[in-house]
């Protein structure tokens, strides 16, 4: 992203916001995919829970936390 050519601070901030918004959406989609495809496998329950909690926390950090029913449905 280049902001050098932008003429006003408003345009600079708008460009920055759009850039981060796009990254946040991508991160959210990728994390949701990881959450739905993660399997317990041979992991112990505490390890599996910690991994799922970390993924849910990652989604929450994008600004849209999962509701309990969404988390249960995905896991």
Summarize the structure.
It contains three helices and no strands.
Explain this structure to me?
Helix content is 69%, strand content 0%. The chain is mostly helical and 75 residues long. α1 runs antiparallel to α2 (45-60). It is elongated.
Sketch the topology as an H/E string, one letter per element: HHH
Structural class label: mainly alpha
Number of strands: 0
> Radius of gyration from the CA trace?
17 Å
Number of helices: 3
Specify the biggest β-sheet: none
* Helicity, as a percent range: 55-70%
Q: What's the average pLDDT?
A: 81
Count of domain modules: 1
Basic shape: elongated
Identify low-pLDDT runs.
none
How many angstroms does the end-to-end distance come to? Answer: 36 Å
Beta content: under 5%
What is the topology?
Layout: H1 9-37, H2 45-60, H3 68-74
Helix pairs in contact: 1-2
């Amino acid at each position: 992203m280049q902001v050098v050519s932008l003429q006003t601070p408003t345009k600079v901030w708008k460009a920055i916001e759009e850039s981060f918004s796009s990254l946040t959406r991508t991160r959210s989609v990728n994390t949701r995919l990881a959450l739905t495809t993660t399997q317990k496998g041979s992991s112990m329950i505490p390890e599996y829970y910690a991994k799922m909690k970390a993924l849910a926390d990652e989604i929450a950090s994008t600004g849209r936390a999962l509701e309990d029913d969404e988390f249960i449905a995905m896991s």
